[in-house]
Amino acid sequence: MNTKNYRKYISLWMCLCVWNLLQAADLPKDQRGYNIGETVANFELKGVEGRLVSLAEFKSSKGVIVVFTTNHCPYAKAYEDRIIALDGKYKSQGFPVLAINPNDPAAYEEDSYENMKVRARAKNYPFPYLFDDTQKVAKSFGASRTPQVYILVREGDKFTVQYMGALDDNSQDPAGVTKRYVENAVNNLLQGKPVMLNVTKSVGCAIQWKEG
Q1: 3-206 topology per CATH
Q2: What is the pTM of this model?
Q3: Partner of 102 for a Cys bridge, out of 11, 20, 29, 132, CB 3.0 to 4.6 A?
């Protein structure tokens, strides 16, 4: 890349970063959670296999694709096979999927821990499916909808947020997808490049928060 093109590339990247930060700033204060580049605190949640799974367990990975999702949500169901395919494509390259259900099962019984186990077995999930019973993890991330994706990159013993938002630009029709946000972001990270579009709007069901 010559000097002129390099400067043009850097200028475009800086403009996109500023635009993305402004987009994030428009979110309600209690939903902002982590910003791009911030370190994610370690967490530990119970998975459908019955054991506790922590973020720290992924210390040998290049990163983690965290997906907040649920059983009942039509959008989550529409993306389910794509999330499974995402894990199949990138786990071997160092970016496994980690799925988390933050929904209050009192709002939708289908989202209970027992039904999570049923769903995971029925679809043969290849990734951990964790229950955020207290909803503290979802709140710390700033998640508001399902599905909502956060791409984390490991830097030593820390994980930093490099992307947040939608998986792609078509929630209903996989054949109609034209922009694969998560795939593009992971591909850039694997090549040592910055994520050009690191914040997108998630389209899905609002997370059902517990009262009080």
Answers
A1: Glutaredoxin (3.40.30)
A2: 0.86
A3: 132
